[in-house]
Amino acid sequence: MDFISLGTFVQLLVTGISHGCLYGLVALGFVLIYKATEMVNFAQGDIMMWGAFIAFTLASYFGLSYLPVVILTIFVMALFGLLLERTIIRPMIGEPPFAVLMLTIGLGFVLRAIAGMIWGHDEKEFDTPYSIDPLILGQVSLDYEQLVVVGCTILLCLALYVFLRFTRFGIAMQAASQNQLAAAYVGIPVKNVVAITWCLSTAIAAVAALLVAPLQLIYPGIGFVVGIKAFVAAIVGGFGSLAGALIGGICIGIVEQFVGYAFEGAYGETSVYVLLLLMLLVRPQGLIATLQRKKV
Amino acid sequence: MRFVLKTNYTQDINLFLHNGQRFWYGLLIAALIVAPFFLENFYVGELTYLFIWVIAGAGLMLLIGYTGLVSMGHAAFMAIGAYAHAVLFKLGVPFLPSLLMAALISGLLGAIIGVAALRMTGIYLAVATISFAFIIEKVISAWRPVTGGHRGFIVPEPVMFGLDFGSDLAFYFLCLVVVIAVMLVVMNLLRSPTGRAMVAVRDSEISAQAMGVNLVQTKTLAFTLSAAFTGLAGALYSHKIGMLFPENFTIILSIKLLMLVVVGGLGSVHGIVFGAVFISILPQLIAILRDFLPTWLAQRRGLEPLVFGAILMFFLMFEPLGLYGRWVKIRSYFTQFPLYRKSTFKRQKSYLRTERVH
Question: ipTM of the predicted structure?
Answer without folding.
Answer: 0.85
